[in-house]
Every structure is written in C-alpha cells, then in structure tokens.
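so my prof wants the structure for this chain in the tokens format not the other one, which i didnt know existed until like an hour ago. anyway here's the sequence
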Amino acid sequence: MGLVILQLAEAKITYSELGFLESFKDLPIAFISLFAVSFINKTGTKKALILALIIVGFCSCLLPFIADFWFYKVWFAIIGACFAIGKICVFGIIRNNISDEKSLAKTMSNVEASFMIGIFVVNTGFGWVISSQYAEFWKFGFLMIAVLSAVTIFLLVKADISESKPLENKNIISELSGFTKPAVLLFLAVIFSIVFVEQGFNSWLPSFYKNHLKVNSFFALQATSFLALFSYAGRTITANVIRRFPLHGYYISCMSFIVTLLIIIVGIQYFESEDSRLILFLFPVIGLFLSPLYPVINSKMIAQVDKDKINLFTSLIVIFSSLGSSVSSIIMAILFEKQLLHLYPLYILSSVILLFVISLIYFNVSKKKI
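here's what i got, hopefully its the right format
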C-alpha cells in the first residue's frame, strides 16, 4: 500500500482518493470475515488457503496490464478478502495446536516476524525498480507476487496440515453474543488502536519522508523497509525471550519505549528542526518496540478462547484490525491533503498515548476465560 500511494501520488491522484483506496482493502476484510468463518469450517483451512492464494496470484497477474484507477479499488478489495481468509486460517491452525499463552506468543511472534521479512523484501525490490531506468515498469513487480503465490500453493499441497473437524452451521449472531464481555470489548479496542498506529507508519511513512523530509522515492520507500527490518528484529527477539517475562509487563515496557522515542522525535522537530535528518533514522527504530504489541496481545486473549470458537473470534480480530487500518488511512489522507505534515509525529504520539491508556485498562480487567 505504501508503494502504491507513493507511485499514484506522482500520477496526480489526490491524497483524499488514496486515503479511501485503503478502505477498499480494509472494509472488504471486515465484511467478509464473518462469512469466511462458515466457508473455512466447511472447506477446511488448507483448501481455503489454496483458493485464496489462487485468487491473489490471478489478480496480481492482471494488475500490470490495467492502468485505470478503478481497478486498484477492485484489486485491493479482492486482495483484502483473500487476506481475511488467510489470516483466519493461520490463526486457527496456531490455536488448534498450541494452548499455552506464552507458547502462543512465541509462535505468533515468529509468524508475524516472517510477515515483516516479506514487507522488507517487497519494498526493497520495488525500491530498486522505481529508482532505476525501468521505473515505468514498476507494476510488473506484482508478477513476482503471483509466482510466490504459486510456490506457496505447491508447499501447501505437499504439507500435512492437522485440521479440526468441520463444524455444523450455527447462528453467527448468537455465537457473537458470547464475546460481549468487557475484557473482549477492551481487547478489540486495543487491536483497533494498535493497527491504527501501525497504519500511520506502514502505509504513510514513505510519503511523509518524501513530501516533508524531501528525500527521493527510493529512500522514502526504504523507510518502510527498515521499519519492517526493525519490526522483524522486535518480533524475533520477542519470540526468544517472551517466556522469561509476564506478557503484560513485556507489553507495557515496549509501549514505554515507543512513547520515549516519539517524545524525542517531537522534541527534535520543535526545538531543533522540523525536517531534521535525525528523524529519518529514529522513526524506523520504533518498529523494534511497536511490532511485538500485536502478537503479544493476541496470544494473551486467544489462549483464553475455546478452540471451537477460534475461527469466529479471529474474524473479530480481522474486522477490528481492518477498521483501525481504514480509519487511520482516512485521517492520514486528511493530514497530507491539508499539508499538515509537521503534525505527523505529534499525531502518532497522541495515538500511542491513547493506545497506552486503553491497554492499561484492558490488562486490569482481562482475567476470566471466555
């Protein structure tokens, strides 16, 4: 998304349009998630994953040959729907095989770390393309995603995945009523807020670097690459040390470091220079402490959910994650459209402080099994 925003902005697509483009990815994720649960229960996680990957590969093959902006909306909507299916399947597989919350935290941190490596490789690769003499062919890079989809399908076909038995159809509304406890609602608010903060970095940091800090497109895109690299380091470290610490203590420590770094960035901006080059290097470091939050908080709650409810509960995680992403992008688009980029660090700091407060409340009430 960061790459597409960066490139389409140069093609004179307005930031307000680009902000809503993210919604075409996130809102289908939210809408399809509940329906995806019954689909996955009927077909099984393996077949559902393979189908989602086939669709992603096919759509990635089409993208380089269609230049109209409307197709990006359709493309992101389809990719978002497939992402929802994939995420529910992966979370379900993890929960069906691991029950202990610290083991869950370790496994989920490793899974999320591999996700960060994917972001790093993709952004670095596209960065080389858009800064080369072949920049006009940047969309053909999506053919590599189609190839990766095919490779993953091959691996899934060969893999022996242990799956839970298909469940009988139940009324989704009545099932959801079991997730209305204060601890669950606070957890969903935390998930919404984490993704809200992450989205301000992942999709919009390259455009902030280019428009406000005046760096070239290649270096702007590498901002996300290095953010992903630090995020990978943060999640890998978490996976290896999480057993030594209480989850809530580790989470709060990470939050404290994020707030400290953002205060330093805001201080540099207001007391030294609002486009200081030091900010270029401090923002990606935040990924080291921001990245563990999502897998740690998820593992803590998922460990309390019964296995037969995990797909439905994961769909709620996906829904609130996508809503957090969508709302964040719309607000970021307004900041960019109104040329208020000098407020970007302060906006991120305010979002993190709000997340900190909601998280503290959540940890105080999350003790009962769902």
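also thought this was worth mentioning. The mean pLDDT is 81.
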